[in-house]
Amino acid sequence: MAQPEIIHTQVYRNAFDLYLRRGTPIELSLKTALQEHPTTHYIWRTRGDNKVRALHAANNGRIFSWDSPLSTGHPGEDYNCRCTAEPYVRGESEFAYQALTSTVNDSTSKWKIRDFVEHAFKDPRAVTLSEIGHLQDIINHYAYHLGATGIFDRVNRQIIDNARRSGSGYFTYPFSNHYSFRAVAFPYGESTVKGEFRGYVVRKGSLMRIDGAVEYLFEDEYTDPVDVRQYLLAGTSDPAATREIVRYITDGGGAVYAITDQWQTAFHAEAKLDESESRYQWAEDE
Fold this sequence. Notes:
By secondary structure, the chain is an alpha+beta fold. The protein has helices at about 5, 10-20, 25-35, 55, 115-120, 135-145, 150-165, 230-235, 245-250, and strands at about 40-45, 65, 85, 95-100, 125-130, 170-180, 190-205, 205-220, 255-270.
């Protein structure tokens, strides 16, 4: 007979409905239903390339119930979706994901190149990504489209790698790197994203459970808008690296100003302690 945890699932309700309408024995109906979906929950897996749409990439590594379809549908149901559903088995399956916890209040007017230029001449104060309408685009580009699989995937594996070496309890993991955000808006060029994970790891048999939060900080300067200093003169856009006359010419006479913002995510994962058996591995040279 069905176990108590099965009775409250859609699979059991469908089986019970068949029993009432057709007299089909519940155990036989459950067996048929469970062959279609062998577990009540699944882990969403994307193809891990830059063709994955942001809404689906945000689901990657997360656990969902077959009883509760998302707005995107289950994996493979949305138009041209290549994602798959991996059966989730408690205590055996691995998963890792970050969920945005910050509220994004982007300006409805997104800056274009001319807006960056005009600001350098009219009001060269520091601005935030939200003010200029780009925070969500920067987050999506950073998280899901940089490199082959996006940086969230790399950060997830780095956090898990550090958790393996830290033992049980509280730990932190800071990180920083430079990335090109020209795909969002050309004036960004190479920008810096810093981050720090703070959270806990608990070991359970062959698995470890990791829960915490990640703080991200985006830093950029509007300077050298067409990268003349970067690629032709000095090898860098740093205003301090060249003479004032060179900066004036290459910046078009406009002032340098900072572009910054921050966001936070919740991090959750269960991964194998033995890295050689885990899907979440990290190489220092990545």
